[in-house]
Every structure is written in structure tokens, then in C-alpha cells.
Fold these 3 entries.
Entry 1:
Amino acid sequence: MELSQMPELMGLSLLLGLLALVATAAVARGWLRAEEETSGRSAGQKANGCPPDKSLKSKKQKPQQRIRKEKPQQHNFTHRLLAAALKSHSGNITCMDFSSNGKYLATCADDRTVRIWSTKDFLQREHRSMRANVDLDHAILVRFSPDCRAFIVWLANGDTLRVFKMIKRDDGGYTFMATPEDFPKKHKAPIVNIGIADTGKFIMTASSDTTILIWNLKGQVLSTINTNHMNNTYAAISPCSRFVASCGFTPDVKVWEVCFGKKGDFQEVVRAFELKGHSAAVHFFAFSNDSRRMASVSKDGTWKLWDTDVEYKKQQDPYLLRTGHFEEASTMPCRLALSPDAQVLALASGSSIHLYNTRRGEKEESFEQVHGECISDLSFDITGRLLASCGDRAVRLFHNTPGYRAVVEEMQALLKRASNESTRQRLQQQLTQAQEALKNLGALKK
């Protein structure tokens, strides 16, 4: 072998030797790690009775971390007029309803529960609620019965009505029991609203096609109404229980009378009157507590207040009392709530709420980004002092300061015309109470 090849061979030998040492060290480290894991498992087996599997432990941790990341954060909202926030649902609230006696608020959510809240706790620190479970489904709409001893829900997957009876316990609480059978499936399109007449004589359901069904309380269809709106966006029963109204793609609100005989037997549904004046589709409407006023909001960017205390059988049409502007209605769907005395109009678009004085047509309050999702329901309580909204996992309640201001204006005007001292004292008392409420809320205008 030539001497010139010797350095190359020596270098190759050294390289091979180094590679062998590295491989030996790697094998040794693997052997030591295996010994440590074996001893760790045996120690764990002595302590817990079963070997701690690291791979299983990591698999258990990952789902927990994923659930924690996917769980939506509760939307935070503060405002000087926020009276309370009701937070017990674990899913988004889709609908709510105040009982006719003013004692309860029912809410339903996609967490498969309906909660019944005590209204007397609204201004307290703790808000009590009772839970009714909706088995194998969840409710998207809820309505109290007139006697407040039952409520009905619309099932999201079952596409039908279910009735729950409220059975009072000895401790003052309630047990909720669903009736054995749900109502039969009749609608062919998604539902837009349900309602129970305050007389207890009928139930209304309306779907997004052009169908409104009138049912008796046993689940039998009494009448079918074709609204001819192209599609329905909303329908409701009037508080007086005489009328059913609907709105949709057409620029009007149509009203029917549901007629019963003197003995309480159903007779017919007849066309009563229409609210005509909008130039585009109507998003929503609402009745005042005495059914003598109605309000509507349209895609034409306006809201309107109507006098519906008319003799429609003599062809008398409702009177338009006020038109206000609400530009948001021209670009997105809106909801509307009318205070029981028709003095205040609440409009919701997206996640914001705006309050208007219906006498002057002026906006008086605005609440921006009230919920983490679009507002799904909006309603005044039966006293008109509070406005409730929902759109995520909470119900938020606001003091109705425009309502107090309207009372102040009305009482001041009536005092000037008061003819006797007793009337003057009664009006002065109501005026003082409204002014004190505004002062306590920091909303009294100087």
C-alpha cells in the first residue's frame, strides 16, 4: 500500500469510530429512559392501583383544553340605566315572555331548558329561577298561559308545540310536567311566532311561508289563514284576544278578527283592517296593552304609530298618529316593542336598542352592543318600567326613563286642566313619583 493513501484511511477509520460511539451512547440513553418509565409505572401502580399512562393523560388534557377554548365568553355590558342581567342559561336565549300577572318571566334557550324567573328579584342582587328541561329537543319560542299555570314551547327539532303544566309544590316552588302528546305537525315552513289568547280560547302559530294556524287548546286546527304576504316575518295575537295580525314582504300589516259565539264556540276568522302607509316590507309590529294602538317598523326606514280603536265593520280605517325615522331598518331586520301605555317605542337592530318618545317622535336613549349576538327578543314588562332584551346567554333589563319622562309631560299637561282638588292631588302624586324615579336614575332633565 502506498504511503500517500495512509492519511485517507486513517481519517475514514476515525470517522467510523466516532459514529459507532454516538450510536452506542444513543442506545444507552434509550435503555436508561425505558428503565425510568418502567420504574415510574410500577411506582404509580403501587400508589393508585393502576398504571398512569402518560399518553392517556395527554389525551384527557387535550379535550379539556379544546372545550375551554371553544366555550364562548360571556358578553360584558355596562350602562347607567342597566337594572339587571339574568345569567343562568348555558346557551343562547331565543325567546322570553312575561306572565300576565306580572310575577314571572319565562326564557328558553338552546341549552334544552326553559327558565322561570321571579320578577320581584329583578332589582335585587340575586336572581332566582326555576328550570324546566325540554327532553330530546330544545325550545325556540315560549309563551305563558293566561292563568300562569302552564306554558307552551315550540320545539326546534320536532317542529311542533309542547305544553308544560306548572304544578306548585308545598315549598312554594314548581314542578314542570309536559303533556303526554305534542301537537300534530302541520306547518311546512320554519315558525316565526306562537301565542295564546288571553281569553284562553285559542292558540296561534305562524310560519315563514304565508300560513297562520288557529288551534284550540286540545291541538285541533280551527282555521287556516293565508296572509298573502309572499312570506311572513311576524305574527301576533292582540292583548284583547280579538285579533290576529301579520306582516311580511308586502308593505302593510293585516289584521283578522277571531270570532267566537256567546257560548264560547269557535265561529270564523274574518278580515278586520290593514295598516297601510309603508312603502316597503314590514319587519315587525306590536300592540299596546289595550289593543287601541299599534306600532310598525319597515324596510323603508320608518316606524309608525297607529290608532286602531276604530269601527272597522263600518269600513273605518286606522289613523296614522306619528311617523319616525329609523335608518337602520332599511339595511337590516329590526325588532320592535311598544310600552303598555304606547308612550315609548323600543327598536332593536343588530345588538343595539333605541328608545323613542312616541308623542314627539324623538329618540331619547340608545344602548349600543347590548349583547354578543343579534338581539333575538325585546319586550317591556307589564308595568312599563323595565325593558328586557336577549341575544346571547343573558337577559338584560333597562330602566325605561323615556316612559317616566312621558308621565311627567302628561301629568303636567293634565294638572293645568284639572277641575277639582282631588284630581289635582292624584295627578300631582303621579308627577312626583315619576320625577323621583328620574332623579334616582340620574335622568331628570333640568
Entry 2:
Amino acid sequence: MIEPFIVLAVLLALIGIGAPIFLALGAAGMLGLYMARGAMALFFGPTSLFAQLNSFELLALPLFVLMGNFLSATPVGENLYRAAALWFSRIRGGLGVATVGASTMFGAVSGVSIAGVAAIGSIAVPQMLARGYSQRLAAGSVVSSGALAMLIPPSVPLIIYGAVSGVSVSDLFIGGIVPGLLLAFTLAAYIWIRATLNPDEAPLEYEGPPDWGARLRSLGGLWHAALLVSVVLGVIYTGVATPSEAGAFGAIGAMFLAGIVFRSLTWARLWQILASSARISGAILLIMGCARIFGDYLNLIRVPDAVSQALTQTGLQPFFILMLVMLALLVLGMLVDAVSLIVVTTPILLPLILALGYDPLWFGIILVMNLEMAVITPPVGLNLYTLKAVAPVLPIETIIRSVLPFVLLQFAVLTLFVLVPELALWLPGLAR
């Protein structure tokens, strides 16, 4: 059968010439369906697109994007970093540790990694460089911790995986808490150890007893957003509301904070936020719909079954097969954006994961952890270029070199969760 290779060649050619990813996936999928079913492709294509987008769970995606954009219009990001810098000011590498802490908390606000890099990086990098931090430590701490937004709930990639796989988004949110916090702790510990072993990279400028009054006052600009996020996630975890319903409440609450509490919302800014949210959500949904067309073609010619059978019949242990899958995803993530990778690879890999006896909830967590590394590695590491845009003083070569030790740390934590799946599953099980 030469048809699948033609379809793959068309897909790669369109991506290679810079065509939008949704166009490449949709065109390649329609071509494949036409070669397999002739004129019936004109029926299969629109049906696949509608089937992908006709999901109540997907309502959560634009609502959480809107919530994050409203909160990004407030001083929450700046307040988060200032508070974290005060609380960690007395330890070596404190500003780097503060960057990880602020990015982790901002990830729970935005759910989008590049938003965290933009919001925290624009504040953190000038502060660290002005206090003598090395460019590599400053860049690496911002770029790597910004990726935590992909895992810390409410996470847009987890919502997409849940819509594609049928796994409960609520369970995915709960499952992302432990690996997200462990990754944040690992990154912070590495920064502290690195700064302690090499003090020239992170001078310690504060001495004497801490100013507890300033520390406590720094929390005053955070409690509104913290309360909103806690309520939104709390009603999801307790089963009071679905993620879509909670997202609607969160978007309204975030608009209230931006407009009434922080008074940072003008009519022009409101229109900008609505337009930006519509563009982001529309782009993601369009990619998902076109990827479903391509995925249905792969299912029609039984590619997922063939991949599953080929790998399970190799005689390799499940762990080694999983590591091969993780490495393949890492390489693909360097070339394709996270949304496209989730919606294209999930229908192919999920049958393999089930055949190996693993939980699809666990695989969703592992998949997103893998994509966290992908967004900070070139050539399509969006976090790298986002930081360059908000901190132009940093050379792009320095930013790219700075992420290597952080990628290795993330891969080590990923391996831990591959070896011990219970680490990701015990909290969702407890919540049930």
C-alpha cells in the first residue's frame, strides 16, 4: 500500500513549506480519506470535524483561556513574583527559586505556558540580571518553570487530552497536581544547589533577619486571585461542578477582579482580551478538528492497531516500549506544537498503552510531562522564543543552552513517573 506514504509525504511537505498545521493535517487527512473511500471523503471529513468539536468537555477550553487572559491583564503576575522574591530572599539563588514558585502559581491562574513565561519572565529576568545572576541561570529558571503551566491545573493540554481520549478532565486535573509540584520542587532544589556550589552565578545580597511585615504585606495583592483559583478547582475536585461550568465561573470571576478589584480593565483592553481569547481558542479547536480528520484516516487503515501489534510483539518489556514512546514524543515535540501532537498521537498510542496494561489517565499525565520538555527545546520550543521576545537582552543562543540541565531534570522526573505509575494515580484514586 503506497497511499499512506503519499499522505505522510503530503503532510510533511505542507509542514515543511510553512503551511498552518491545521491546513496540513486537514489536507493530508482528506487526501487519505479520498484515496481510501473516494467521494465518500466529502462526507467523512465534515463528520469527523463535527464529532471532534461536539463535546461538552471542550467548552472548558475557551473559558479557561478567557479566565487566564483576564487575570493576565491584572498585576497578579508582578505581585506573585515580588511576594515570592521576598519569601525566598534569604537563600542562595532565592530569585531563581522565587521564579519557579511564581511560575507554578501563575500556571494555576493561566493554564498556558507561554503566558507564564511572558508574565514572569518580563519581571524576573531584569531583576536577576541586575543583581548579578548569570544569564543562563536566569533564562533557564524562567523557561523551564513556565512549562509547569501545562501540567498544573487548570491545564489546557489536559483538557485537550481528555476531549480526545474520553478520560475525565477532573481526574486529569487532580492527577496533574503531584507531578506538577514535584517538578517545581526539583527545579527549585536544583537552582539552590547550583547557586550554592557556584555562588558567582547567584550572589546573595540580603543579610540580617527577614522582614516579616513586608513578607505578609506582599500577600495582600494575591489573595483575590488565589481564592478564585481555589474555588474554581475546588468545585471541580469535589464534583460540585463540571470543568466547563467551573470555567464559566472562573472567567466571570477573573473579569470581576480585572475590572472592579484591580481596575485594570478598560473597554479597549476588554475587547483585546475577548479577541485574543477567541483567536487562541479558535486556533486550538481548528487544529483539533483537522487532526481528527487525519486521525480518522489513520484509524480507517488501522495504523493504531498495526503500531500496537508491532510493538507488543517485539518481546520488549513494557518499560522499554514506553521509553521508546517517550523518546519519540520528545523528538516529535521539537518539530510539532503540543496541541497538534496530543490530538494526532493519542488515537495512535492509546491502544498500545491499553494493550500494555497501563491506565489512560496515567498516560495523559505522562504525555503532558513529555510535552513540557518539548516546549523548551528547539526548533519549535515556543517558551524559548517567548522569553526572547520579553527579554531581548538575552541572546537566543544563551537561552537555548540554558535549558539543557533543566530538560535532563524533567526527563529524570518523567522516568520516575513511568517507573512508578502509582505516583500519578494515588491522588485521583483518593479523590474518588
Entry 3:
Amino acid sequence: MIEVLAKLGRGPVFLAGEVLECVITFTNPLSASSTSASSEMLAWASAQIHCQFHASENRVALPPSDGSKHDVQAENETVFVPNRGERGQCILSTPPKILFCDLRLDPGESKSYSYCETLPIDGPPSFRGQSVKYVYKLTIGCQRVNSPIKLLRVPFRVLVLHGLKDYQFPQDEAVAPSNPFLEAEEGLKKDSRLADLATELLMVATSRRSLHLYNISNTRGKVGTFCIFKTVYKIGEDVIGTFNFSEGDIPCLQFSVSLQTEESIQEEFQRRRGQPVSFSTHARHQEACLHTAQSSFSLPIPLSSTPGFTTNIVSLKWRLHFEFVTSSESAGNCLVRGSQSEAITWSGVEQMEVDTFSWDLPIKVLPTNPILASYVSQFSSTNSITI
């Protein structure tokens, strides 16, 4: 028996283009006092990153020729097929890397290997929607002699920030002394620079503030105004907005604001023409606001949510969905005077004619620092298997 432990040291969330590093440890759990006859042998171990794509048959019509093209190629090249038994299609994979061949472990002995691979920068982000799913996994395969292959799958999350693909790092290595022993160090340096660049780009994009004022009105007149200071956010931020009903001609009885994502299939892949868009609500604020001059809301964008993106099959957009309930009468008629004495009490009317209308405001949601997103990730940094 051999225990295989895979650990992602920095956490299970990465930016596309970063280097994923995983330490894989093989251990013989028997006591060191056992005889040498209890030694364990492994023929080989290999690791590979792949992205699985799965689509809902009721919503997405995929070309039948796409089938399992990647699986056939992998079976022709090697017996190690990381996506074997997985749902959907393997749309992206890195070259497999051999960790070792012919490993012998004595009782109580363990060996560790470091697997490093750059995540493709042009791949899709991790996403679990109502129509499609993009799932990333690191699969480690190992085999005893004359035994079936065992697979250890390590799921992780990938965030995509547009703009990193076209950035060229300064070629400062040409003037530096050449040292072949520093290859790994230079790779980590470039990886850290990419993370710093992403953080800088996100800070610039989401820190710009400018006043956006919108008039809220229906067919009968003005209800109020809405104010928001920016429309570009990172996941983990709060969307804050304010209402001013004091200048409205139509009394607003109630309003609600929902933070939603809009998942739409590209027209050529739709199962039915004119197929409706799928909406998901991530946060909601509702408030009764009769005789309220000003009000506000704060909706958090979950760190576990997916930033907006577009692929050849699906696109995901974010929006604020507003719903307003207004009175057909003036504000003074919404209350009834209950007493003529010195202590005057007012009570609400029993029935009231109302109008309802909605409004959508598109916003842009970008990724955040992957280390921050790792704190709330549903994936574990450590995965293990016994073979």
C-alpha cells in the first residue's frame, strides 16, 4: 500500500498564465521496523493539467464531429489518459510530465516531487453555469507493475483577466549573466511579475470613480434618481448605490435591487432559436420606501462567483436588476388621518392601486487576487489517494 498526497502550496485558485506548482508525496505507511520484504514498488507516475467542458443537452447544440477527439489522440500516444471517465469533452490539456520511473519505497520512507506547469493563458475560466461547465483538474496517474493505473484528481479554479495575453515582459535577461542553474528561479520571478501586473491592472480598472446619475421614471412621471459611483468591480467588492425620491412626482412604495448574472449561449450553438437567457441572482436588497427621501443599498459580489467572460459557446454578463412599486395616487392620499384630537395618528390605507416596472443596469465584474479567492474556495489544497 502506498499513500499519494498532492498539495497546492499557494491555494487552489490561479490566474490564467500563472505557474501552478504542486508537491506530490509518495509514502509507504508501514512502520520503519517492518522487514525489507514490505517494500513497495511503483512502475511510473505522471501528471497533466486538463480542462473538461460539459454542456446541457437541453440548452446547447454542439457539433457531433467534436466527439472525443482529444481522448483518441491521448490513447494513441500513451496509456495515461487523465480525463478518462470524466463527463464532457477535454478542450484543453498540457503535455504530460513524468514524475519518476521505477520507484522503490521502504517501510516508513517517502519521496516528494514538484510538478510545475504554466496554465494556458488563452483558456476559459472555471465556470459552473446552468448551460455549460468549465472544470480544471490536475490529474496524477501512477501504476504498479502488472496493475491498473490509479488516478488522483486535484480540482482547482482558474480566473481569466483579459489583457495579460498581449503584455510583453521586458527582455532584461539578455544583459544579465547567464546561469543555467537559475532557470527555475527566473520562471518564478516572471510568474510573480505576472501576478503583480494583474493586481495593478485590476486596481487601475476598478479604482476609477465618476458620478453616474439616472432618472427613474415611468409613463406617469418621475419617481426619483439613482446614483452610483462606478460600474466596474472586482469579485469580493460591494456594489453601493443611493436613491433620492425627494424630487419625484410619483410616490415609490417599495424597491428591490438584485445582483444578477446573465448566461447566454451564442446563437450558432443554441438548441432552439430565440432561446431565453438564463439568470442567476447572487445578492438582493428589498426595502419599503413610502415617504422616504433617500435610501441606499450595498450588495456584495461573492468571491466564489465567476467574473464576466465570453467564449465561442457562452457569454456571462453582470447586471443590477431594479424593480419598483409605485402608487397611482399622490403621496398625501397614502395615509388616513385617524383622530381630530391633539394627538394625531395616521394609518395606512387598506387598499391602493399600484404600478410596477423594472430596469436593468449592466455592470462589469473582473477577477481579483487569486490568493484572496483561495480563502473561500470550495476546493481543498490537499488531496490524497491510497493505491
